[in-house]
Structure prediction request, 333 residues.
Amino acid sequence: MLYKFFRFFLFRLDPEVVHETLLFLLSLAPVRWILCVFCRYDDPRLQRNICGLQFKNPIGLAAGFDKNAKALLGFQALGFGFIEVGTVTPRPQTGNPKPRILRFEKEEALVNWLGFNNDGIAQVVERLKAVKPKMKIPVGLNVGKNSDTPLEKATDDYVICIERANPVVDFFVINISSPNTPELRRLAEPHFLEELLSRVQRVSRHPVWVKLSPDMSPDISKDQLPQIIALCEKYKVSALVATNTTTDYSLLSSVRLSQGGISGNPLRIKSTHLLKMFKSQVSSQMALVGVGGILSVKDAQEKINAGADLIELYTGLIFKGPALIRKIKRTLL
Ligand SMILES: Cc1cc2nc3c(=O)[nH]c(=O)nc-3n(C[C@H](O)[C@H](O)[C@H](O)COP(=O)(O)O)c2cc1C
Prediction:
């Protein structure tokens, strides 16, 4: 109720201005102390041991929210069980021209075409180095390629990021699914994926997760899915993250879109569908992370019923506020 009141005002402001302000507030120690008091909800029954990592609870912050590791302690105070930093690329990038995030209140959706704006791996690693000793939850780094790196050289970008971040993170997420970097999703094509995974596994000292797109076409054809899974099994990928945003603009039929990825409620069914497909096809050693359209306790339960070992939030946090984390935990118990 309180968040709904705040949201009325926040939603009248530019999404990126609100986002940056929120990150700044979460980075302040007094704000974190207050959050710790109001948001703490720990219970040993919420703990999970997945991919050899100990998670305080199965609810994580999805990639893109704290791309540059500016407010990790704040998100820990909000009660998340793990955090995905990034997407980070080797060199800093400004991303696409603004505005590049749209909110759709009625549809409970966001559309973004940020284009991997980030401070670059060197600066993000410095921040992680400073904060990691204070983190009591696993921190993963979601890695991608610079927009001007050709596909044939993309693997080098992932390897550079992983080598530099090895000492300061607990797991890596290979992002081959963001729709806003031209051709990035083609890295899921088996010949690119094989090279990428084989080199990544050679350099990574931590579990490797792969984040996939909900759009099987035009980027990946349906019959490539078993090949993608087989390669992930072959190269001992620890978890599949389903899913990133979608470019299926028919899901937001009230507006005419020509760019960006849709997140939030319209994405939910599509992303859960892919999660179910993974559940039926992957071996039991591979964990599944469900993300896409979790805006309620029921949505979280739906992902878990579909086979998710862990879940992640992005758009739900914006539309429903931090109380959603606590509500999901309470229901899980
Ligand atoms: C503004 C915005 C930025 C995002 N940036 C990234 C990113 O950098 N890397 C990534 O893998 N996913 C990114 N995502 C996708 C989210 O991590 C998540 O997969 C997607 O939004 C679906 O979850 P949701 O419906 O809970 O938002 C971004 C999403 C949004 C809305």
About this structure: The chain is about 35% helix and 15% strand. The chain has one domain: 2-332.
